[in-house]
Amino acid sequence: MVLKEKIQALSEEYHQDVVSIRRHLHTNPELSFHEYETSKFIQNKLDEYGVFFQSGIANTGVVALIEGKNPQSKCIALRADIDALPIQELNNVDYCSVNNGVMHACGHDVHTASLLGVARVLNQLKSEWEGSVKLIFQPAEEKFPGGASQMISEGVLENPKVDKIIGQHVSPELQSGVIGMCSGMFMASADEIYIKVIGRGGHAALPDRILNPVLISSKITCLLYQHFDAIEDVPSVFCIGAVNGGSVGNIVPDYVKLQGTFRAMNEEYRSISHEKIREICQNVANEMGGSCEVDIKIGYPFLKNDEKLTSACFKNAQAFLSSNEVIEISKRMTAEDFAYYTHHVPACFYRLGVGFAGQEDRLLHNAYFDVDENSLKLSVGMMAWLAVNA
Question: Catalytic: 300?
Answer without folding.
Answer: yes
